Amino acid sequence: DKEVRAIFLRLFAQLFQGYRSCLQLIRIHAEPVIHFHKAAFLGQRGLIENDFLIKVLNGMAFAGFVSERGPPFRTCDLFDELVAFEVERIKAEEGNPPKMIKHVRELAEQLFKNENPNPHIAFQKVPRPTEGSHLRVHILPFPRINEGRVQELLQEGLARSQGAPPATRGDKKCVVPAGPPVGMFI
């Protein structure tokens, strides 16, 4: 699963390398608008006649991509690092499948670490019921729940969470690296 995602991550990083140099911030409205200059992007990459890329850039998914990833100050992620800093590595690996596979595996490992930051926490599987367990008659009914005790536990948990310091995520906003200009990829 993670390796397939890593392959698509690399694909889109290659496809959109240099996109940040074609973003324009328009401030004529009360709220600034980020516009992607498609003609400049396609022209600088020499892909004006590429129907596939034109359709991708005209799609709603790409418009969402620009609005989400366009702001110059936001939380950066693995995709931003690939687009900004791994351009030469991706280009060098194009003719070398073993290196490309190694990079995909590294990306997959990073994706796994991002989704599972605490690998020491193990999830225990619920054992399957034994054969014939449904035929047992001696199963006790589920006990009635004491509503007062449930409320007490909820109040205790709320009191503890209000007194605890706020949880901090590792995501900190930063200036998004622009990466190399589009003209470099021709």
From TrEMBL:
Residues passing through the membrane, by range: none
Protein name per the record: MTMRD protein
Naturally occurring in which organism (per UniProt): Rhabdornis inornatus
InterPro entries according to UniProt: dDENN_dom, DENN_Domain_GEFs, Tripartite_DENN
GO cellular component, one term: cytoplasmic vesicle
PROSITE patterns in UniProt: DENN
Gene Ontology biological-process annotations: regulation of Rab protein signal transduction
Residues annotated as domain UDENN: 1-76
Alphabetized GO MF terms: guanyl-nucleotide exchange factor activity
